[in-house]
Amino acid sequence: MALALYWSALAIALAWMSRSGSGRRAGAAWMIGPLALTLATVVLIKADAPLHVRFALSEPSLERHARSVRDDHVSGRWWGLFRVDDVERI
Questions:
Q1: Pairing of strands 82-84, 77-79
Q2: To 10 degrees, what angle do helices 2-19 and 24-46 make?
């Protein structure tokens, strides 16, 4: 949603710039940065990068929790960046 609002604002700004006589070149050069940022965001999300980063940051905490699981586990706690509701010892 925020990305759609951003691109709408960008389109309005480009329309305003082209009316004021700045030329197409200035508008095209100004649009490269946001376009590259949007493309990079889409590629990272499609590659599931946020989940991989989240797991990499939480892995030590999750490992520590997995080694210390008991029968009287308290559900609904945060371990790293993940909420752990159900744990089963195997």
A1: antiparallel
A2: 170
Please give, one letter per residue, the 3-state secondary structure of 34-90.
Answer: HHHHHHHHHHHHHCCHHHHHHHHHHHHHHHHHHHCCCCCCCCCEEECCEEECCCCCC
Helix H or strand E segment including 21: none
Per-domain boundaries in the chain: 2-46, 49-84
Ranges of the chain whose pLDDT falls below 70: 1-2, 4-5, 15-29, 71-73
Calpha distance 16→34 (Å, rounded): 17
Residue 57 CA to its chain's centroid (Å): 15
